């Protein structure tokens, strides 16, 4: 009985936690609320009425579809590139020893540690110096710089949990490097790669700062939303699109959490 009482959180801590959660999530609930308002030009509270007409309006606006399509394409290609490069970097850093290994690891994670505006300015300067026109591919390259970090962090952590005896046993039994990766390593790191890919996709899908410096005249969905807020036209449509962004980014993050929550066991340990 005494241990149960001592494990209970104090009332003040519960109130503080509830206040923190409310501070973070109430603005998101307000976005959802104003997606149904009948008021077109202002954020009047409480809303004068509720309607679902703005979902049809957003569905029929070609600029929304163009921005959404661009964001999905960029996120998909940036995630695919990050999965390949991030996995290779993680394998090199975790499975081999060489001079400057820690420096390489630092350089890989540096893009996500730096402020986004620094990364954006650096990429824009590099593209300008190389006379590379700003296009779809410059956005992909910009997003890949930080998507690689997400995949790398997930993969390197899982690589370090794989017992070396598994790989040695596979090689001793006659498997080559590719077969060892396919049948031994990949099943152990698969969920980590999937989780890293989900997080990378979500991170790319709602990225604003780096995209601003690398997009040129194109507008991804977050950039479109920012422009709509500056020059309001049918405000509830922006909130409807914001709901889509919240859902699209929340589901991969939730999936990544469930995929990696049981990843603390070392594969092959004790065998």
TrEMBL record:
- Which topology term describes how it sits in the membrane? Multi-pass membrane protein
**A matching Pfam family:** BPD_transp_1
Q: Which residues form a coiled coil?
A: none
CDD domains, per this entry? TM_PBP2
Which biological process terms from the Gene Ontology are attached to this UniProt entry? Answer: transmembrane transport
Location within or outside the cell: Cell membrane
Q: Which domain of life is it from?
A: Bacteria
Q: Where is the ABC transmembrane type-1 domain?
A: 68-256
Q: What is its main location?
A: membrane
Q: Which GO terms describe its cellular component?
A: plasma membrane
Supply the alphabetized keyword list. Cell membrane, Membrane, Transmembrane, Transmembrane helix, Transport
Instruction: Give TM regions.
Output: 12-36, 64-92, 104-122, 134-152, 240-259
**Entry-linked Gene3D superfamilies:** MetI-like
SUPFAM superfamilies given for it? Answer: MetI-like
- What family, per the record? Belongs to the binding-protein-dependent transport system permease family. CysTW subfamily.
Its protein name is Spermidine/putrescine ABC transporter permease
Which species is this record about? Sinorhizobium glycinis
């Amino acid at each position: 009985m005494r241990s149960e009482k001592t494990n209970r959180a104090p009332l003040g801590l519960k109130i503080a936690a509830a206040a923190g959660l409310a501070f973070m999530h109430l603005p998101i609930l307000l976005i959802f609320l104003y997606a149904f308002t009948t008021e077109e030009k202002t954020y009047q509270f409480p809303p004068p009425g509720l309607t679902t007409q703005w979902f049809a309006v957003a569905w029929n606006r070609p600029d929304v579809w163009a921005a959404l399509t661009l964001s999905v394409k960029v996120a998909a290609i940036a995630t695919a590139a990050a999965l390949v490069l991030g996995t290779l970097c993680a394998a090199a850093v975790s499975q081999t020893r060489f001079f400057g290994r820690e420096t390489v690891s630092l350089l890989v994670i540096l893009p996500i540690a730096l402020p986004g505006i620094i990364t954006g300015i650096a990429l824009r300067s590099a593209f300008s110096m190389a006379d590379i026109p700003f296009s779809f591919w410059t956005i992909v390259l910009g997003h890949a710089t930080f998507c690689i970090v997400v995949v790398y962090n997930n993969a390197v952590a899982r690589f370090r949990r794989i017992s070396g005896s598994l790989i040695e046993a596979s090689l001793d039994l006659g498997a080559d490097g590719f077969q060892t990766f396919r049948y031994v390593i990949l099943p152990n790191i698969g969920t980590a790669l999937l989780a890293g890919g989900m997080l990378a996709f979500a991170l790319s899908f709602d990225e604003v700062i780096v995209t601003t410096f690398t997009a040129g005249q194109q507008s991804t969905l977050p950039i479109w939303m920012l422009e709509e807020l500056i020059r309001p036209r049918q405000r509830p449509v922006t909130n409807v699109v914001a709901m889509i962004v919240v859902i699209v980014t929340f589901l991969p993050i939730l999936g990544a959490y469930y995929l990696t929550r049981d990843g603390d066991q070392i594969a092959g340990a004790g065998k």
